[in-house]
Amino acid sequence: MYLSAIGNLWPNGMAKNSGWGEKQDRRGYAEIIKENKTFENYYKEQNIIPIEEWEAFMSALKKPLPATFRITGFRGQAEQVLEFVKGNYINNLVTKTQDGDVIDKPYPLPWGHRVGAGEHDPALLLDVKSDHLVLDMCAAPGSKTAQIIEALHADESDKQPAKRLNSPCCMVVNHDARFFPKLFFDRPDGKKEQLMYDRILCDVPCSGDGTMRKNTMIWKQWAQTSAISLHNLQKQILHRGTELLAVGGKLVYSTCSFNPIENEAVVSSVLIASEGALQLADVSGLLPGLKRRSGLKSWKVINETPQEYAKPEDVPDKKKRRYIESMWPPSEEDAERINLHRCVRIVPHDQNSGGFFVAVLEKVKRLPNEKEPIVKTVTEIQRTEDNTVSADSTEVTVKDTDVIENAATSSVDEDIADTISTEDAVTSVTPTDDASTEGISEPPQKKVKTEKVTLILSKKTPLITLMVMGAVAGDKMLTRSFGGKKRNLYYTNKRVKQIILTNQQKLKVINSGIKTLCRSDAEGVDCSFRLSQEGIISIFPFMSDRKVLVEQSDVIKLMSTECPFDYTFSEKMQTQLKTFGQGSIVFVCDPEISDLSQASSKSLIIVGWKGKTSVRSYLDKNSRQHYLRMCGGDVSQSDALSEKQPLETISRDASGDGPEQDDRTAQEKFAGSANSEEKKKTNKNDETLKEADQGGLSTIKAEEGQVGASDPSEATPVETN
Ligand SMILES: C[S@@+](CC[C@H](N)C(=O)[O-])C[C@H]1O[C@@H](n2cnc3c(N)ncnc32)[C@H](O)[C@@H]1O
Known about the structure:
By secondary structure, this protein is an alpha+beta fold. The chain is built from 23 helices and 31 strands. Strands 5, 6, 9, 10, 11, 12, 15, 16, 21 and 24 form a 10-stranded mixed beta sheet that branches. It has a 5-stranded mixed beta sheet with strand order 20-22-23-25-26. Strands 27-28-29-30 form a 4-stranded mixed beta sheet.
């Protein structure tokens, strides 16, 4: 579940100072002059709204966009957070007036439960079900992808959280959407069949004038030629999307632009070319409460002077490549036949939102030039591929039988992600020969700059079964390292993994799955891996052991001290700790449960390490501060977490999951900060214990070459849009 609220959280004056929503504008809100006569004249000509509404339209555009926030996560936590925010903050606010403007209290968006801020509605109109195969063609930076992932996980509610992109059924790849390659999957009869997607989102690059309330620089930079430059790219992306869409599937085309050249013109040209294979869906009954305008049936093609080209023939020869035929409106008859009015335009003054455009396309039969679904044999596939490097299926043994129930031997294959450096990922895209060029211009043969494209794969085989079946890693774990020791094990979906392996010659995979186990060659510990905070919620339900039920005071101790000794915790926790040897451990805190078997997704679950005589958590400083506050602890009283302490003195481990594993540094810090009663207890006895413990904790080798990265989603369950 996710819930929404919208409201002017900041009075105008504060918004001005804070720069809230003024993303690209470093000069501050007050200095931007919200006037652009070219913009006004252009859209008056285009009739995007009746002229009598013009003032209301312009006046709404000039106001800052209300702050909206969406509570993500899984049902239990989302409800708790919403109740908390309402109870502790919203209920205490009063409606105020400032400079004549009424500042409302935050309120839930009126059009239903599962709705984010307006600009996210396209993802909702996709109607994603948990067994769908979904392709998000222009995914960066990923906010709609996050919503799609939530929809894929919707059935699992409390079992499987959908934390932004942290999902076993998501794969991020880097390709130019216009030439997104055909991918194949293995059929039970051993043949390979082309993947066709149930749902596709084409949230294409656009001029973005619907976001003027947020991106105020657009007031200054706006020009009608942006739409002219983008039209062909948008059309190519949409066209490629329709080729990859399964018959019976749905595709959402969306922009944050008011401009019909980027909207209705793109949609109508692709629809007409499809000769009835594509239809515009009637979405008037969806998202009740969302005020919308029908798609336009006619518009003008205007050049920069500004002069109208009434028909393609009016364009001077030297500009013919720029002004292409598909920019002009279809005949009245065609516009009627394809139901162009079913496109949706959202305007800011209807519900105090941004502006955007959405069209939902349904594929009812194959496209005119689309052949029967391709089925190839493995040999055929290999013949067509230049490179025949096959997946390395090195065996890796996960030795920690304590940690994961039924974990025995796991066969781990290679992900290709490590073959792509960050630079490569954004610069080198060679279109594959099977990206159809039907109806679109030739694919560029030179290197082109591209953004990420996200491929989300169905999770028909739920991740949950994989561990219970005794194959923790068997067919759903990936590692991204070639040769040598495997660093991290990523928990993924069986289909995602199969598709990566089947299509590794074509796919530039950036990311897939959830980091669940990290290498940790600690001396004296019979396990080559440790748990990762990032993947703990996925793996927790299958852990039979290594769990400790802790009290609130224990969490406070754990969060405020680097490596607290066992004896400093509650009796109950100490008793449990005594039963464990050194290694990965999980702390569970939940005031509502008395037994570990009652732990649920609402429980606080923290990954840590049990040394000989002390423990530690694998959380970064921000997360520890967050949990400390949540448990009523005082951050300012903790030397390890105090804001005053320079960041660099809190070292982190190389995997990014927590503090550096050199326990001595932390212990020295602990011993050195003698200003609290607790720390004065660091006596001779402790010194002996400390030395003993260092033998265990300090010998854990940090993972090689991993860049530290915190898990901010842990600490920030409320996301702002
Ligand atoms: C409107 S934004 C998408 C926003 C995204 N859907 C979200 O909700 O966060 C369009 C994105 O497409 C990217 N893009 C531009 N050209 C592209 C191409 N040829 N293929 C794929 N993505 C492209 C842009 O860089 C931009 O990040």
